[in-house]
Specification:
Mean pLDDT: 95
Largest sheet: none
Order of helices and strands: HHHHH
Number of strands: 0
Low-confidence stretches: none
């Protein structure tokens, strides 16, 4: 069994965030709107997970991740409230798109969230490199 260090997890999760955000470009081109929302959320979730691990903060759920992120990074001013709202919005939209029947997102919604999601990941990468 391989023993992974926290730095390995941080690096892996950040790479997953970057890879996943790239997937969204293909999903947009093919008009897979609900899947694009899902991947936007997960790209940001992976980045947040990396940030929490880097700072020794443990969580066991998506809600716990959002709570600890808010407590340690938004309330302290390290992450803007606009980014926190984006993360919450993506979480809620992902829930709706994945679990509600007969619900479909549109291209305008996905495109509106794409660039801010890339900036969100870049901001977290900046914090990881400090």
């Amino acid at each position: 069994m391989t023993d992974y260090q926290p730095e390995d997890y941080v690096r892996y999760r950040l790479n997953r965030a970057k890879e996943t955000i790239l997937e969204v470009e293909t999903l947009i081109q093919n008009e897979f709107w609900n899947t694009a929302i899902n991947r936007l959320y997960y790209a940001c979730f992976y980045a947040v997970g990396a940030l929490l691990v880097k700072n020794g903060i443990e969580t066991s759920s998506h809600s716990g991740c959002r709570q600890k992120f808010g407590q340690h990074f938004v309330q302290t001013g390290k992450i803007s409230k606009d980014f926190a709202r984006l993360y919450t919005d993506l979480f809620e939209k992902r829930q709706k798109g994945d679990y509600n029947d007969f619900f479909d997102f549109d291209g305008d919604t996905v495109r509106r969230l794409f660039e801010p999601s890339k900036l969100f990941i870049a901001k977290i990468e900046e914090l990881l490199n400090e």
